[in-house]
Amino acid sequence: MSDTPPLDSRLLSVLVCPVTKGPLTYNAETNELISKKAGLAFPIRDGIPIMLPDEARRLES
């Protein structure tokens, strides 16, 4: 596990998926923001969520 600080819950409360505009959940194990509706996982690098669809990882079905 990395030594990356956890995502601030206030930030999570205002972020939405850029594709669906739906809610995101934080996965501490992978340090990603998950959009179940879009099937995407957005990385967090140096504490900054990368909310670009081209940078997101497709979730396994």
Which features characterize this protein?
5-stranded antiparallel β-sheet, UPF0434 protein NBRC3278_0022, N-terminal domain of TfIIb, single chain, 5 strands, globular, mainly beta, Trm112-like, 61 residues
Description:
This is UPF0434 protein NBRC3278_0022. One of its GO terms (cellular component) is cytosol. Belongs to the UPF0434 family. It comes from Acetobacter pasteurianus NBRC 3278. It holds the Pfam family Trm112p. By secondary structure, the chain is mainly β. The protein has one domain (9-58): N-terminal domain of TfIIb, CATH 2.20.25.10. It has one helix and five strands, in the order αβββββ. The protein has one helix at residues 9-14, and strands at residues 25-27, 32-35, 40-45, 48-49, 57-58. Strands 1, 2, 3, 4 and 5 form a five-stranded antiparallel sheet that branches. The longest helix has 6 residues, at 9-14. The termini are far apart. The mean pLDDT is 90.
CATH class: Mainly Beta
Q: What is the typical, i.e. mean, pLDDT? A: 90
Helix tally equals 1
Strand content: 25-35%
- Rough shape? globular
Rg estimate, integer Å? 11 Å
- The CATH architecture term is Single Sheet
What profile does the largest beta sheet have? 5 strands, antiparallel
CATH fold label: N-terminal domain of TfIIb
Low-confidence stretches: none
Question: N-to-C SSE series?
Answer: HEEEEE
Task: Work out the number of β strands.
Answer: 5
Distance between the termini: 24 Å
Number of domains: 1
Protein name: UPF0434 protein NBRC3278_0022
Organism: Acetobacter pasteurianus NBRC 3278
InterPro entries: Trm112-like
Family: Belongs to the UPF0434 family.
